[in-house]
Recover the amino acids of this structure.
């Protein structure tokens, strides 16, 4: 576990004045099971967690399915009681904070699919004012201003008068994020906010979250399955591996230490530490000599790799077959069934028998 | 969550939403007042509208018989319809939000049947009776009936709420509600065997639903109980709004979910219990009024929805009361026949409109 994130815990005095994000001390998360004899037994999913998410940074929680990401997030936002240890939100102990005071410091976006009924986008975001409004729940001018600000902050200002039920998945996640911002929290936790989104919406939302952390000084913690994007955008990563250890650090720290590869490598999937991306793991059945310019070469390599062929190094004697680029998208194949093909599609079909 | 119509045809409003809501509420208030007077004026002996208004404002009518008719017969009936309509509508709003289920209402989830069971228990146990047959029992007897009905309603409500933790599908929960209702009705049937035949017949008449059987002593019990239930609902509007996105979101917004649920449960049990105790189980008002009101207001915001539902419930209950006594005749149609005839199409239209309702997927 890389320890670069944690500060010495001694200087508590000067920490009081600035928002300091979210920290855990010896936290164990999991479930209390009730046995028939009335004595509760604890089933810890993750334990001994000393994590810190700083203000102004986007912290991403990664891990395989079933590793306990949701359990951890639900404990961090107070929906599940912790089994051991403490969660500190801006220096205050979560378990000792009243629900309303906590809601003013911490807001969440959950995986639950919400049915907004007949609420407009503005009303939906306005629900986030709940911990700030009085007994009747009436929104003051100041409350309305915060709602407008939060909608603008997520780029949904133009949607304010639309019925929330008509939003696309991406727009709805933005509006739910705006609802969280309307609580004016210091810390925002999001449980897989990009799960139902297409690729452009995922990128947009993830970048938005990082910008919110940077520009508004928020502490943002997001769990996601979108590993490659997270490793590109996140300021810090909490990585739950298969043995339920949590590694923390910058994405590059975890890539260097091999933690990412350990957590996610599988039979057919290999993590490439250089590019920070995943590739299919496959042993090539043959090597092929290739003659193609640099801008075509990567695509050609991809196409050949999918057919179980690798590009031979220069002067490889075993490579008795060759693919030559003829300009356009035409290739000359030299070898069994040699031919001239006019697209990558024809190419891959032709080399399948090699 | 399938509490509200998911795909309402409501497009971007051209009128500012606040003004639209005010207009809807004012129109409903005016309509309710007009129907209130009309309900008093019509019946087997029509009373001129001007005379009705005069009596309502405390003066004597030209014909002293009209004063008696209005004060002793028609006014209790109109007051009953108004308050029971408001009570059932607000109970429906609370249950639909609490269960996050568009098809929840006191009748459909068996709560009214639970109240009937409570009433039947009092009828059989003490020989005392509710509504039309409370005649000889004043004071504690009536309170006892309301209490028994509320306890019966609360018992069924708690059971259904417990089951709704496991059953997420709106339609499945509804079927379970119908089953619980059938079971409660069966218990009532068994209990009636052990009661005197004329009591059993009165009970059956009561169970058809009726706004005309309440007297002033009944109202002295019913109005405060329903008033308390309505006030509870008004005061919990903020809590219900927080529950619109589900219990987890509500909790992270600082809401004490358990207390809110208990308050809504208590309010619903009081409202449905009192309404059922005096008027019998009344179908569909609690289910249809919240949906109609939401569409009319264009919002699910409880701060507008609860007061508007009270008015809309009173308005429709008065309309049903009018229809159940066709003017100029002495025949009285069963109230449930009227409410079902107009309520069933509303539910069907709603199910067809909402994709989620058809697929049986909720939350």
């Amino acid at each position: 576990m890389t320890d670069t994130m944690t500060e010495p815990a001694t200087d508590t005095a000067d920490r009081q004045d600035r928002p300091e994000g979210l920290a855990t001390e010896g936290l164990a998360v999991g479930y209390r099971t009730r046995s028939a004899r009335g004595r509760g037994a604890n089933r810890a999913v993750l334990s001994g967690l000393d994590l810190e998410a700083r203000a102004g940074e986007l912290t991403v929680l990664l891990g395989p399915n079933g590793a306990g990401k949701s359990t951890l997030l639900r404990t961090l936002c107070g929906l599940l009681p912790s089994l051991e240890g403490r969660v500190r939100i801006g220096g205050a102990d979560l378990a000792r904070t009243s629900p309303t005071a906590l809601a003013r410091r911490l807001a969440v976006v959950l995986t639950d699919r919400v049915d907004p009924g007949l609420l407009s986008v503005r009303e939906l975001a306005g629900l986030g004012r709940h911990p700030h409004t009085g007994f009747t729940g009436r929104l003051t001018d100041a409350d309305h201003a915060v709602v407008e600000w939060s909608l603008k902050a997520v780029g949904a200002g133009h949607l304010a008068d639309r019925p929330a039920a008509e939003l696309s998945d991406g727009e709805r996640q933005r509006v739910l994020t705006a609802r969280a911002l309307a609580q004016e929290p210091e810390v925002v936790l999001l449980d897989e906010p990009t799960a139902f989104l297409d690729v452009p919406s995922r990128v947009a939302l993830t970048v938005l979250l990082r910008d919110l952390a940077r520009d508004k000084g928020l502490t943002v913690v997001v769990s996601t399955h979108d590993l490659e994007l997270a490793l590109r955008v996140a300021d810090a990563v909490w990585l739950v591996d298969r043995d339920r250890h949590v590694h923390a650090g910058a994405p590059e720290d975890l890539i260097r230490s091999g933690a990412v590869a350990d957590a996610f490598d599988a039979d057919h999937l290999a993590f490439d530490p250089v590019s920070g991306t995943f590739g299919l793991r496959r042993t090539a059945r043959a090597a092929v000599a290739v003659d193609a310019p640099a801008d075509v070469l990567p695509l050609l390599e991809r196409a050949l790799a999918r057919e179980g062929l690798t590009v031979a190094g220069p002067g490889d004697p075993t490579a008795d077959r060759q693919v030559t680029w003829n300009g356009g998208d035409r290739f000359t194949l030299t070898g069994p069934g040699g031919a001239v093909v006019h697209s990558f599609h024809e190419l891959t079909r032709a080399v399948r028998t090699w | 969550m399938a509490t509200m119509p998911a795909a309402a045809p409501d497009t971007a409003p051209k009128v500012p939403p606040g003004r639209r809501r005010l207009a809807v509420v004012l129109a409903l208030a005016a309509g309710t007042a007009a129907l209130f007077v009309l309900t008093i004026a019509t019946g087997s002996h029509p009373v001129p509208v001007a005379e009705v208004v005069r009596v309502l404002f405390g003066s004597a009518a030209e014909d002293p018989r009209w004063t008696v008719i209005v004060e002793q017969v028609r006014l209790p009936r109109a007051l009953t319809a108004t308050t029971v309509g408001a009570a059932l509508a607000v109970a429906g709003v609370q249950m639909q939000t609490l269960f996050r289920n568009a098809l929840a209402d006191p009748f459909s989830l068996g709560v009214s049947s639970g109240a009937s069971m409570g009433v039947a228990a009092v009828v059989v146990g003490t020989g005392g009776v509710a509504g039309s047959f409370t005649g000889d029992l004043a004071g504690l007897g009536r309170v006892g009936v309301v209490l028994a009905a509320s306890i019966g309603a609360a018992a069924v409500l708690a059971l259904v709420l417990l089951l709704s933790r496991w059953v997420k599908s709106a339609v499945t929960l509804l079927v379970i509600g119908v089953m619980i209702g059938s079971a409660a009705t069966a218990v009532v049937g068994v209990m009636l065997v052990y009661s005197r035949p004329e009591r059993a017949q009165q009970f059956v008449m009561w169970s058809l639903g009726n706004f005309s059987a309440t007297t002033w002593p009944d109202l002295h019990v019913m109005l405060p109980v329903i008033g308390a239930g309505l006030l509870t609902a008004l005061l919990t509007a903020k809590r219900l709004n927080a529950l619109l996105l589900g219990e987890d979101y509500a909790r992270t917004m600082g809401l004490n979910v358990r207390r809110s649920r208990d308050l809504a449960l208590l309010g619903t049990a009081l409202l449905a219990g009192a309404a059922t105790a005096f008027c019998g189980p009344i179908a569909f008002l609690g289910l249809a009024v919240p949906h109609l009101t939401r569409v009319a207001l264009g919002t699910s915001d409880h701060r507008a929805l609860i007061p508007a539902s009270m008015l809309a419930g009173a308005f429709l209950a008065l309309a049903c009361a009018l229809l159940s006594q066709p003017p100029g005749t002495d025949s009285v149609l069963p109230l449930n026949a009227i409410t079902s005839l107009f309520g069933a199409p509303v539910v069907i239209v709603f199910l067809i409109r909402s994709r989620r309702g058809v697929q049986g997927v909720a939350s």
Q: What stands out?
A: Residues 1-13, 128-140, 355-363 of chain B have pLDDT under 50 and may be disordered. Chain B has one domain: 17-359.
